[in-house]
Design goal:
The complex is a heterotrimer of chains A (254), B (174) and C (382). Chain A is of the alpha/beta class and 254 residues long. Chain A contains seven helices and eight strands; from the N terminus they run αββαβααβαβαβαββ. Chain A has one domain: Rossmann fold. Chain B is globular. The two termini of chain B are 22 Å apart. Chain B is built from six helices and six strands. Chain B is α/β, with parallel strands linked by helices and 174 residues long. Chain B has one domain: Pyruvate-ferredoxin oxidoreductase, PFOR, domain III (Pyruvate-ferredoxin Oxidoreductase, domain 3, 3-Layer(aba) Sandwich), CATH 3.40.920.10. Chain B has a six-stranded mixed sheet. Chain C is 38% helix and 24% strand. Chain C has 13 helices and 18 strands. Chain C has helices spanning 19-30, 44-56, 67-79, 90-105, 133-138, 154-171, 181-184, 248-263, 266-269, 289-303, 321-329, 343-352, 370-380; strands at 3-6, 13-18, 32-37, 60-63, 83-88, 110-118, 124-128, 147-149, 174-180, 187-192, 196-199, 231-233, 272-275, 282-287, 308-313, 315-317, 333-338, 357-361. In chain C, the strands form four sheets. In chain C, strands 3, 4, 5, 6, 7, 8, 9 and 16 form an eight-stranded mixed sheet that branches. A five-stranded mixed sheet of chain C has the order 13-15-14-17-18, sandwiched between helices. In chain C, 59% of the residues are buried. Classes of the chains: A alpha/beta (254), B alpha/beta (174), C alpha/beta (382).
């Protein structure tokens, strides 16, 4: 299976930089498969990323045009490239801190503007590369390097945020449900306008070990338990605490 | 130098005169200053016209000063170059006792004769051109057509013509 | 090399334009195909004019959510193949600094027009200043080079915008037009030429986009969508674009190469203009709008028998050390009037030593008048 993706990878890059158990390696493969599944060739696309672990998913691994930008600015760079050459198929791959904290303003404005691009936000709920500090997506009460007594603030619901800002297509999936997530990414790529896919991707090194989930297996089990597909939720039932609602929303649902 | 209050069209008047000067083959340099409020603060358009390139493009002591309101008069009259000419709107400005210069009923003419109080600035453009004889009328008309929407053009053409008349009558030699 | 003549968008001949309008026309004449910006006094007329004019000429105009996004979008557009521009003023320049470093480090051609106002901070938004000289060169972290030009007239807002684009494209770097409010808002006759020299970026398929065999060489500049599988990164990279974040030699080589690329061309980049320098014992060193006042002051001083001259800096970065040193070689002393607390005076002192340079600083939001400069010249006169 991996071999089939070689043509899309810079095989001279010997290893990804991701820690053992990181969800981003799985996500890397899912993105390429989703692109192929949508009938596109990644080698003809432009991948824009910011700063952080997730930004290294496309850069330098994908054999494509990759633009590894400044922290938070991936969407603004992508907006310039897409507006300058509307023929480019543009995907932005970056992390939750990059896209929704330092880059939060660009996120809502890119969604509002609606230029066609697909954003894959790898959400590990932590600043991984800098050593496990709290992100705007870190759960209330979670221990991190900068919230040793527990995070006192609520996290963003990124899908709600981006939907409210006017995105054409929004979805949340998890690397623990790879086929669903792949389908969401492929759907996003096929939509005209701005699409946003939140990909839950666990971080054992910086999040798990501080939160009592010290093996990747425990972390994946925990994420699996928390994920509830929209269709598995009865009616308008409230989400149980700590649960994730997975699913997709189209702009016209808003 | 033209001075008045924001909203009186001072800056546009300066731009029209500069535009027409360049269209007549002259060199022109204009600057304007105004307060942060769009309406009601002191506003000033300065303009230099010359036969050759202009070294320093700002007016230090104007040879001609138009005061479109009292505040503008009081703030700028002292800048006038020796031998310079001061014109003011005699319905809106009460000049200093014994001050040299000439008051013209520009706002009144715009309101009563043209029925267009907002055209007073273009009337002043005509006055300046009429007094100095430095501008070609065709260039002024062309500048006007380039700067104003069609629906305002007719009345402003009349304002320009009326201003030119008033200005010619006010020439020192007239 | 790929230099050619382009026709300006505006009809050739005399026009009456503000400096900001002239800069927008200069950008169009240079072949600018993309503008992204955020409104800020006193530069907004540039973006307003381009909002109307760029689409008429097949270009793209975007109003972004802030200045950071503006220069980010410009960099993205440059790699998508457009000659790209943003314009701002001091507070926006401060916000753009990280992107400026990115553009320098990734060798992205782009032009930034800074219409300076009285700073620091929000300062006096509608008033003039020239306090961004150092920020334009040293504002982003690390050692890098930019090209910065200083226009003194509406005509030069046109001419130097064209030149800024040409340097940006030729050297693959951010070029900055360090304008001032007094020039941006000055309306003047601007003579639009029949044609302007423009530079098209060089591209050799397959050539490394971040390296060149010559020490000062400018690499080939591909764009997205050409099948080059470009790797652009603001991290330390090799000639192909692979990150080399652990390799000391790679980092040193890249930093040196990017600086050398510019400094090796200082002779050609540093443009100055001399007035009455032949016998001058007092030389006014000035730039931008202040040089207009200085020229008048020098002429007035000469009428009073003072042998004054003017050395006008058209290029501010790289700093024209050679021309400043030469002006002093004749035994003259320097007067440096500027709308900041001695930013260029300090550079001049580095070149000629502290004793021969007299700063004349004014930071009250007003431009320096000929009378002020004349007064200082008369005081200095033997």
């Amino acid at each position: 299976m991996t071999r089939a993706l070689d043509q899309y990878l810079r095989t001279e890059v010997k290893a990804t930089p991701f820690c053992p158990g990181c969800g981003h390696g799985v996500l890397l493969g899912l993105i390429l498969r989703a692109i192929e599944g949508a009938g596109l060739d990644p080698r003809q696309m432009l991948f824009v990323s910011g700063i952080g672990c997730a930004a290294w998913i496309p850069s330098p691994n994908f054999r494509a045009d990759t633009l590894h930008t400044l922290h938070g600015r991936a969407l603004a760079f992508a907006t310039g490239a897409k507006a300058a050459n509307p023929g480019l198929k543009v995907m932005v791959v970056s992390g939750d801190g990059d896209l929704s904290s330092i880059g939060g303003n660009h996120l809502i404005h890119a969604a509002r503007r609606g230029l066609e691009m697909t954003v894959v936000c790898a959400n590990n709920q932590i600043y991984g590369m800098t050593g496990g500090q709290a992100a705007p997506t870190t759960p209330l009460g979670a221990a991190t390097a900068t919230t040793p007594a527990g995070n006192p603030f609520r996290p963003f619901d990124l899908c709600r945020l981006v939907r409210a800002a006017g995105a054409a297509y929004v979805a949340r999936g998890a690397v623990t449900r790879p086929y669903e997530l792949m389908d969401y990414i492929a759907q996003g790529l096929q939509r005209p306008g701005f699409s946003f896919i939140e990909a839950l991707s666990p971080c054992p090194t910086q999040a798990g070990r501080r939160q009592g989930l010290d093996s990747p297996a425990a972390l994946y089990d925990d994420l699996s338990r928390r994920c509830l597909a929209r269709r598995e939720l009865a009616g308008d039932a409230e989400l149980p605490p700590g649960a994730w609602e997975l699913g997709s929303w189209c702009g016209d649902d808003n | 130098m033209l001075a008045g209050l924001g909203g009186q069209g001072v800056i546009l008047a300066g731009a029209l005169l500069g535009q027409a000067a360049v269209a007549s083959g002259l060199y022109a340099a204009g600057a304007s200053s105004y307060g942060a409020q769009a309406r009601g603060s002191l506003s000033r358009a300065e303009l230099i016209i010359a036969m050759e390139p202009i070294d320093y493009p700002r007016v230090e002591a104007p040879d001609l000063l138009v005061a479109m309101c009292q505040e503008a008069h009081d703030a700028h009259a002292g800048l006038l170059a020796p031998g310079g000419r001061l014109l003011w709107d005699d319905g809106l400005v009460r000049p200093a006792p014994g001050g040299a210069g000439l008051g013209l009923p520009v706002a009144l003419t715009a309101r009563q004769e043209l029925g267009a109080p907002l055209a007073a600035n273009v009337l002043w453009v005509g006055v300046v051109a009429g007094v100095t004889n430095w501008w070609q009328t065709a260039a002024l008309e062309e500048a006007l057509a380039g700067a104003l929407p069609a629906r305002h053009l007719e009345v402003n053409r009349r304002a320009l013509g009326r201003g030119l008349e008033m200005g010619r009558q006010a020439r020192p030699e007239a | 090399m790929p230099s050619h003549l382009s026709q300006p968008a505006l009809a050739p001949g005399a026009h009456y334009l503000s400096g900001n309008e002239a800069a927008a026309e200069g950008a169009l004449a240079a072949g600018c195909g993309f503008y992204a910006g955020y409104p800020i006094t006193p530069s907004s007329e540039i973006m307003e004019r381009l909002a109307a004019r760029l689409p008429q000429h097949g270009g793209v105009f975007l109003q972004m959510e802030d200045e950071i996004a503006s220069l980010s979008a410009v960099i993205g557009a440059a790699w998508a193949g457009k000659k790209a521009l943003t314009a701002t003023s001091g507070p926006g320049l401060s916000l753009m600094q990280e992107c400026l470093g990115y553009a320098a480090f990734t060798e992205t051609p782009c032009v930034l027009i800074d219409v300076q106002r009285a700073g620091p901070c929000t300062g006096q938004a509608t008033k003039v200043g020239a306090g961004d000289i150092m920020a334009a060169k040293w504002g982003s972290h690390g050692d890098y080079q930019v090209v910065a030009l200083s226009p003194w007239s509406a005509q030069e807002m046109f001419d130097l915008t064209v030149r800024a684009f040409n340097w940006a494209e030729r050297l693959r770097l951010p070029a900055i037009l360090l304008a001032e409010e007094a020039v941006g808002h000055l309306r003047e006759r601007v003579d639009i030429p029949q044609s302007v020299d423009t530079y098209q970026r060089g591209y050799t398929p397959g050539a490394p986009p971040f390296g060149h065999p010559e020490p000062g060489g400018v690499p080939s500049m591909p764009r997205f969508g050409q099948g080059e599988a470009l790797m652009i990164t603001g991290s330390t990279h090799d000639e192909r674009g692979f990150r080399r974040t652990e390799d000391p030699a790679a980092h040193a080589a890249l930093v040196h190469r990017l600086n050398h690329k510019v400094l090796a061309r200082a002779g050609e980049l540093c443009q100055t203009e001399g007035h009455f320098l032949e016998d001058a014992s007092l030389v006014v060193l000035a730039y931008g709008f202040t040089a207009r006042a200085a020229l008048k002051a020098v002429k007035l001083a000469r009428r009073q028998g003072v042998k004054a001259g003017l050395l006008r800096l058209v290029t501010l970065w790289p700093f024209p050390e050679e021309a400043v040193a030469q002006a002093l070689a004749r035994g003259a002393r320097l007067l440096v009037p500027e709308m900041n607390l001695g930013q260029v005076a300090g550079l001049a002192r580095q070149v000629v030593g502290p004793g021969l340079v007299r700063p004349l600083s004014q930071v009250d939001g007003r431009h320096i008048t000929p009378a002020t400069i004349l007064g200082a010249l008369l005081e200095m006169a033997p």
